[in-house]
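Blackboard transcription, Thursday session:
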Amino acid sequence: MGDPFVRFQEVQKSYDGETLVVKNLNLDIANGEFLTMLGPSGSGKTTCLMMLAGFETPTHGKIVLDGAPLNDVPPHKRDIGMVFQNYALFPHMTVAENLAFPLKVRKMGKAEIEERVQRALDMVQLGPFGGRRPMQLSGGQQQRVAVARALVFDPKLVLMDEPLGALDKQLREQMQFEIKHIHDNLGITVVYVTHDQSEALTMSNRIAVFNDGIIQQLAPPADLYERPDNAFVAQFIGENNKLTGKVTAADGDRCSVELDSGEKVTALSISHGGVGQKTMLSIRPERVMIGDDVKDCDVHVDARVQELIYLGDHIRTRLTVCGRDDFVVKIPNSTDRAGLVPGNEISLGWRTRDCRALDMPDNL
Amino acid sequence: MKSFKSALIAAAVASVAAGAVTSAQAETELVVVSWGGAYSASQQGAYHDPYMAANSDVRIVNDDSSNAAVAKLRAMNEAGNVTWDLVDVVAADAIRLCDEGLAEIIDHDKVLAPAPDGTPASEDFGDLIVSECFIPQIVYSTTFGYRTDMVSSTPTSVCDVFDLEKFPGKRALEKNPINNMEWALLCDGVAPDQVYEVLGTPAGVEKALAKLGTIKDSVVWWTKGAQTPQLLADGEVVMGSTYNGRLFSVIEEEKQPIAMLWDWQVFDLDGWIVPTGTKNKEAVMEYLRFATDTQRLADQAKFISYGPARKSSAPLVGKHATLGIEMAPHMPTDPANSKTTLLYNYEFWADNRDDIDERFQSWLLQ
Amino acid sequence: MQNSAADAIVTADGKPLKVSLAKALRRQRMFALALVAPLFIFVAISFIIPIADMLFRSVENGIVEEILPQTVKALESWDETSGELPDEAVYAAMVADLKVARKERTNTKVGQRLNYERSGMSSLFRGAGRKASRIKEPPYKEQLIKTDKDWGKVVTWQVIKQFSPNLTPGYYLAAVDAMQTPEGDIRFEDSEKAIHTKLFIRTMIMSVVITLMTLLLGFPIAYLIATQPAKIGNLLIILVLLPFWTSLLVRTTSWIALLQQQGVINDILVFVGIISEDGRLAMIHNATGSVIAMTHILLPFMVLPLYSVMKTVPPTYMRAATSLGAHPWPAFWKVYFPNTVPGIGAGAILVFILAIGYYITPELVGGTSGTFISNRIAFHIQNSLNWGLAAALGAVLLAIVLVFYLLYDKIVGIDNMKLG
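(Written on the board underneath:)
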């Protein structure tokens, strides 16, 4: 792959001179990659995007795009397309004028502008809407115009700042695919910021999970979900069952943990602090077995059914396990559900490789 | 708690009863309209305070609306609700108000007190009664003041105002043809007794404007009497016309380096009219008899340097109430000051003001 | 069977749906009406009625016929273009009218009215009141002319006849520096002597200049306020509003202290050596003074609408434009600026309309070259008492404002105006 296309190198950012919003960020993005910065609000992901776009200056460190340092390049010379949260379409221009804007400031010929604008409109399936004003379009259509405008001048890089936040769920999912397809077709590099994990999982090649100004984990979606590196990622991405205890022994990639309720279980050693330290065990709800499947499991525990929530394709079951009553299991609708009645005692289990011993977060 | 409540009721009853008693005394409130500032203060000192001291049932309220009195009186009259009882106006306005039927006709001998020696009021005031509605109060003049420290020699003639070579610098003149036109003609060689004859013709108007045109670029035009004293005090103008009382206060009270140029001062009159439709006519007439008697008119000159309108008051003019200086030499009517004077020509201006003013204003715009 | 489709739909109790709906809506409408009624009455009393009164006054002329009824009637048969004096009957009627008028003290009133049209009428009628009452028997013509030779001038009677109808275009003609000759022709004043048209044009030009000045100064201020954090923005807004807390007169006179030739600014310029002692600038008592003082006074009226519009323009527009490759200046002009046009329109029309009617400030600092038509209107209201002419001038001013308003609507569109 050679040199990275975008490189953040020891980047730090502070607004007030007292606290760092971005702490020593190092991140390489490959050409053609769809990278998502995911994190709760205030985690520093948008600041990183703004530094890349040139609207914020790094307090320390440098950002390189395509081999050239960006620090002293003003935003309008960076050749980076950007899709804003509320689209930022210019209301006094028609859709076509909006799309022509970046071409006009580049002093392109009239014919070429027209051709490119039409091509961009066709790309987002808005061919006949060029003469309309943005206000006359629906939210989804405005979104597409914003994407088209960010792409029409063939930028080196496209940044998207929570572009789907204002859309309803159905439209959002549809747009996720459309954006993904555009990315696949054009092979362009996209840096995408969102706080919505399902959006991130659907679209990205890699996801950088931000918290507290630090990248907690940088990995492809599947890795991130199935193999979280730490308690924050485990809890932030997807649903997660937590059990807390103390590490009593560690051997290679395995460790023994004595739960707070007294049970002893074996788990994968990931990021716990070592023997004698508290740890949080993470097990994804769909990796917990009940009924006949339990016999394949390495760990067996008793549980009491608290609540059943029927969700069509599966049943969400809340149980009390090892002293915690927020333990959730997703039971496929095809499974035999005998004995799943609130108040009943059942047995459940999981495999050791699905149980990860992580650091103990402060809030548990 | 109960006693507190009954105390409250008792207090309420008492205050209602007290109110009934005061209203039974039937206090009369007279709204007297005047010019405000030092002038109203002089009337307060010479007329209102002594009158109220002697008549506890009369309360005099000042309203400083004289500069808009004509328009306001007309509006009140049209609305059928005249809230003023006595209005201080210049003679020209009194004539206009009388013409419009907005002022009461006064029988001067009947309403006003005779002089101490028994001379009837109409004789004591003489030809200063320029309208049958008008009760003269003071003689004032519009004349010039100049900065003593900004001239190389002492100006002695009104024509020095037109002499930019001898007295360079700006002049303040009223934004109004009255007086300016007369001075212009006088300094353009028209004989004093022919000024109005000349001014009554279009050619005469142009002649006056041509003379004013020689200094037009050096004139600051004023609209309010207070402007010239301020412009003089700031050194914005070298000389300027205004009312003599205004100059007196800036010279004697504020001690500014300003002196009077009395040459061809224009006498004008200021006095009372009783608005038609006043609700307190009887009380007003009683007040007027007091406020325009010989002594009272002389008393006003203690506060401001305007001459009393009664012949019989002149010998009684004394010293300034606070400065302690003799007032006689500061009166426009003092022989030393009144060697050359004009008297505001009421009839001429009543007839010609609209036309000449329009021409004057269009000349200003050129 | 009902024949129309509308009657076919009925509510559950059998009433036509339209009737029920109207009934339901009537209550709402009555309630809404009750809410606006106080304001409506207030506007009617304080705005509509005075304007109607003004428009009426500008053509109203009942006074001559009211006070001189017999004369007006007698003059009907007189041919004013003949160059001959009216006959004895007219003089007899005039003497009779004057006797009544003398008793009612109205002879001077009609003299005042006619004096607006011809100088000398005022004293003619004042004197005639007294003198006519002494004429007991014919020949009236000879005796009346003996009291004042003006009664023997054809033009005197021409003026009386010309202004005897109850309605007159005379005030409007005067408002545009024209007059009607006794022959009925309309004659315009020489441009040298014209006053009102000159003042109208000057008022327009100065108001436009003042509007542009407030825009020039107000736009950056509004931009600054709109883009600052709320805390600083609020403080700046208070500073902008601060001038409202002092009286207009005080603000105007403080400009005099600053701008006059011996004033603060000139002193500083002389002290620094930019101008010489003799070269002190005349910045007040002229048009410059009016423009400076009024720009200051009217500035908040420009800043506030601009600010309220700018606040609604998202800062991402500028970011979007630069990210699309536009240099900050074109980004500002092509993207930010067009979005503030509604605020500019609102502020400009507000300032312009306020400026066009200003009179205290120009009166005090305008000298001769900086006065407005309003100063003339005030003069006719307060000094000359020629309310008819004042009303006509006011009506012309109102018409000009309406024309500007329509022009604005045509060019910018009144719906595009945003006051907040």
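Lecturer's comment: The interface with chain C takes residues 67-68, 70-71, 74, 96, 98-101, 105, 170, 175, 220-221, 223-224, 234-236, 347, 350-359, 361-362, 364-366 of chain B (CB under 8 Å).
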